[in-house]
Each structure stands twice: as structure tokens, then as C-alpha cells.
Specification:
The chain starts with a helix and ends with a strand. The protein contains six helices and nine strands; from the N terminus they run H-E-H-E-H-E-E-H-E-H-H-E-E-E-E. The radius of gyration is 16 Å and the shape is globular. It has helices at about 1-10, 30-35, 50-60, 95-110, 130-135, 150-160, and strands spanning about 20-25, 45, 65-70, 80-85, 110-120, 165-170, 175-180, 185-190, 195-200. With about 200 residues, it is of the alpha/beta class. The strands form two sheets. It has a seven-stranded mixed beta sheet with strand order 3-2-1-4-5-9-6, sandwiched between helices. A two-stranded antiparallel ribbon has the order 7-8.
């Protein structure tokens, strides 16, 4: 269900079937599997765990797609080559300075008019407060970093990086529509929320 929701979100944000998509933190391919029979353009999935990438390769069965293990804050793609980048539950586990540097390199690889769609943890979403409680409970332990980010920070990062901030949606805001896979047109019906808050940057 999460991968399908991510696909709907990207189509809502303007992903076209012939686009080059960069999927940062692709994991075992939950989004890639949903796109495998739809996306005709290039795809690059990156992650820090090779076993997850191996699972994604097997699950997608798309020999023309690339999956690449990364260890730093750079993207293994040429400058100005990517139509859309996404980072779901990625910046939530990085320090703000690391997120900023990652976004700088994503800006480099995007084409003019290209978009970055990313999710983030936000204090103003009541459902996400349980993550904060978990952070408190893990003080002094060697635990996974769950980093919150404010909408103000999202706006300021965009300004300094040279992005335009297209949209910001709270994690509990129903805004993602369903689409007809053959035509790409919206289908009237229930709108979905994403859980984490979502922002879309556009490279001018």
C-alpha cells in the first residue's frame, strides 16, 4: 500500500511515464515495483544496503533500470539528467546539515524544471508525536535518528539551494488523488494523506 501511495503522490506531483526518476533510499523496491509496469523512462534507485537493492532488482525485473549502493551524500547521476527525484523517509534519518548537502547534489542532477518530492517529520502533525515520544524513550541509547523538520526550514532550505517551493502538505492532509493508469487523469473519489508531511521543490 505504501509503494502504491508513493506512486500516486509522484503522479500528482507531475511524474510522466517517459521521465527519468531518481528514487533515493529505494530500499527493497516498494515504489519501484509499483512503477515497473508503468514507468517507461529511466529509473535509478539508490540505497545504503546492498541486500535491499538486490531484492529490488529481483522484484522489479527491469534490466534497463539501475540500482546503486551509495555511502555518502551525493547522487551517482550526471548533472542536469533527472526529471524527478524522490526521497521518502530519507531526510527523516539525517541531520539537517546532511539533508541540506544531499539536496544540493540533487539540485545538481535535476534538469531545469525538474522536481524533488520528499517527506519529513513535522511536530504539528499529531500522529507523528508518537515518533517524538519514541525519541525521548531512546535518549542515551544507540538508536536510529528520527529527525523532525519544520515547514520554515523547508522554505529556507529551498531559498538557499536555489529551488522554488511548489507545495507543502501536512502528513494528515488528504490531498493525493487516484489516477487512471492508462490516461493519467484524476479519478473522482477518496483523497489520501501520506502520513509524513510532504514537500515539492522545483528547479527553475
Amino acid at each position: 500500500m505504501v509503494g502504491r501511495l508513493e506512486k500516486l503522490l509522484l503522479v500528482y506531483a507531475g511524474l510522466r511515464r517517459d521521465d527519468f526518476l531518481l528514487d533515493i533510499g529505494c530500499g527493497s523496491g516498494r515504489l519501484a515495483v509499483q512503477l515497473a509496469d508503468w514507468l517507461e523512462g529511466a529509473y535509478l534507485g539508490t540505497d545504503v544496503v546492498q541486500t535491499l537493492l538486490d531484492q529490488a532488482v529481483r522484484a522489479c525485473n527491469r534490466p534497463d533500470w539501475r540500482f546503486h549502493k551509495v555511502s555518502g551524500l551525493t547522487v551517482p547521476a550526471d548533472s542536469g539528467s533527472v526529471d524527478m527525484a524522490c526521497a521518502f523517509s530519507v531526510f527523516t534519518h539525517l541531520r539537517h546539515e546532511e539533508t541540506y548537502e544531499y539536496m544540493r547534489d540533487i539540485h545538481r542532477v535535476l534538469k531545469p524544471g525538474g522536481r524533488l518530492v520528499f517527506s519529513f517529520l513535522e511536530f504539528r502533525v499529531p500522529l507523528l508525536w508518537q515518533v517524538m515520544e519514541g525519541n525521548i524513550g531512546s535518549i542515551g541509547q544507540d538508536a536510529v535518528l528520527n529527525q523532525f523538520m519544520s515547514t520554515d526550514a523547508v522554505e529556507v532550505f529551498a531559498q538557499h539551494l536555489g529551488f522554488e517551493l511548489s507545495e507543502v502538505h501536512r502528513g494528515d492532509d488528504p490531498f493525493i488523488p487516484q489516477f487512471d493508469p492508462s490516461t493519467g487523469s484524476k479519478i473522482d473519489g477518496e483523497l489520501y494523506s501520506f502520513g509524513q508531511s510532504v514537500a515539492t521543490y522545483r528547479k527553475p
